Structures are given as structure tokens and as C-alpha cells.
Amino acid sequence: MSKILTSDKTLKKAFSNATKNTSKRISWGRKAQLVKCKGTKEECARIKDIAERLSKSDFAKNSLEIAYKAGYSISFAEGMEDTAGVCNPSTKSITLSANDSDEQNIATLAHELRHAVQFTNGMGARIDLHNIKTQIMMNRAMEADAESCAGISAWELKEKGDEKPWEIFSKESPLIANAIEEDLEKNNSSMNSENAKKSVLTKAFKAWYKNKNLRAAYEKNHVDNLLFLKEKELLGRLPLNQNIDPEDIINGICVLPNGEKYFKDDAKLISSRNYLSVNLSTHTSFKKIMQERFTLYGLEPDKTIDELPVTRPTVSYNKLPSNKKTSENIQKKQSSVFLSSISLKERQEQSASIIKMKRLTKIIKSKIVSSNFSAR
Ligand SMILES: [Zn+2]
Q1: Among 94, 109, 254, 337, which residue is least crowded by beta carbons within 10 Å?
Q2: Tell me: the pLDDT tens digits for 56-79?
Q3: Ligand 1 geometric centre to CA of 113 (Å)
Q4: How far is the CA of 358 from the centre of ligand 1 (A)?
Q5: Closest to 206 in 3D by CA, of 274, 121, 258
Q6: How far is the CA of 55 from the centre of ligand 1 (A)?
């Protein structure tokens, strides 16, 4: 019997809330769980099966409970073939892809639930009010944390004999999976102690930042969001001036179910060059958008953009013959230099992230319009 089963009293309350909140298509079916789903009877049954399986991980069970109490509903969406999942704090909804396998959706749900926990803890729901440097630090920390927690959840399932979600997770996020395996091996432990969890999560969190392509995908997503806001004439309404220090970002995001901080390193790490740098093209786009914002609304450009370390093309621009001085050539050279210097594990991660990049692009083109949602 699942530990997520709750008392009749709570259940009754849960059921009446669920029927109050949604006019139709809520079904609780045979298994009582702390899951509010939206969709057809079949979809709800499938969501509950996925949540039931995921709840065997204590870590994920805690996220399920927090998201449920905060009022999040889970549903499937059509036309999400290339999109793994979305967590939207303004509609309190988590969306999974009906076309993905249950095992894939277990990993996705663990990731999206963690975003729900982050939002519930007051982190990131209005990321768009902050200066760009804070937005970058916050967004990366949220994604690093969500994917690390998904990894921990998949590992816990593996330890309980449900191995497929870990298999899928390892293929999608090999750097993080590797960090988890290596750390557990080194310390010769399972994840039973809080100390072991802290160590594993710190390593996994840091591993997320090594995936340059995934970072580039989120940077593109960020620029696209700003362009979208500009197009909708909303850019002038955002102050883009609130600041959060690395310590507060880490303290707010990197927390264990018991409330303790898991991040064992100095929080300032996320504002260091390797963790904060953006690609030259991203930096150029940020500057351009701020200039246009100034022209349109007279709002001073966000100065924190100048504090972002910039990853420049690795070949010297000046040494190229003048007819080769195109950004395309530099880009090509840069990526070939880059690819030859990375390990096999990293290459696997790069190709996995290309799939994720496609997902992100798809989200931009889809009907989801809030700039505050967090897409996997
Ligand atoms: Zn995410």
C-alpha cells in the first residue's frame, strides 16, 4: 500500500475541494492520492498511476504533497510531442506530454513538481521583475535543482526496484546521473542519511552547469521571452530592477524536504564566471532589447547585464582573413573546438540537450504565453 494514502477525513476534504475547484472531469478513481488531476477519466487514471509510482520515492512524495496543498493540478496536453513538461505558477498547473511514456513522465513529473515546490517557497514565480543577472542566476539554479531532484527521485525508485525511470533519466541527463552515481560510490552509501542527500544533491546541482548546450537553450528561451514581452508591449511595465543575492537564491531553492539547505559549497559560486557566463549572442541580444526598451519607454537599461561574464568565440576574430569574419564561421569554429575538447559523457549530454532545446523552441511557439512558467 502506498504511503501516500491519507486519512478519510483529509480525503473527503480533498474531494470536496477538487469538485469545488473544477466544474467537470475530475475523477479520483480506485486509488486515493494527493493528486488533483484535470482531464478525462482515462487521463486522470494514468496521471494517478504515474504519481503513485513516483510517490515510492520519499523525496518526490514530499513534492507531491507540497504541490497538492498549494493547489496544483496535473494534466496532459495534446500537441506537446516535443515538450516534456511545464509548470505554471499563475494557473497552478503542471502539464505533462500525453505522448511520452509513463517512465518518461515520472522523471518529468518529479522535475515539474520541484518547480511547484520552488514557486510555493516564493522563488521564481515573478522572475520577470528582477534584473537580468538575478534572472539568469535564479533560472539556472531552479533548473539545476529541479533536474537534480528528479535524479534523486529516479534513484530512489531504482533502489526500490523500479529501474526504468532511472534508465531514462540517465540517458537524458548523463552528467547529473553520473554525478549522483559517482558520489554515492565514493561515499559507499545509499541516500538514507541527510548528509548523503546533501552531498549528492550538491554534486548533481553543480553538474547541471556543465551542459553548455542546455544552458544555451535556456538563454535562447530567456531572450525569446523578452522579445515576446516587447512584442506584446509589456516590456515597459517590468521594472527589471529587483535584486536577489546568490545566498538568498541558494537558501530559497536548495532545500531538503526537512527544510535544511543541501548546498554544501559557497553560494557565491553561482555568481562566479563559470556559473554566470552567457554566450556573446545572448549578451548582444540583452543589450539590444534594453536599448529598444529605452527608446520606447525611456527606461534606463539594466546595468547588471554589464556584470555578466561573456563566453566569446574561442578563435581570435582578428586572425581570420577578412572574408571569413562572419559570425557563422566563428560559430562553426567555436563548436568544433568545443566538441573536440569534451568527454563522451558530455557529448551524450549535449545531444540530449538538443532534444530539450527543440522542446523549448516548441514551447515558445505554442499557446503558452506566460513569461513566468518554467518549462523543462
Ligand atoms: Zn525546469
Answers
A1: 337
A2: 999 999 999 999 999 999 999 977
A3: 9
A4: 14
A5: 274
A6: 19
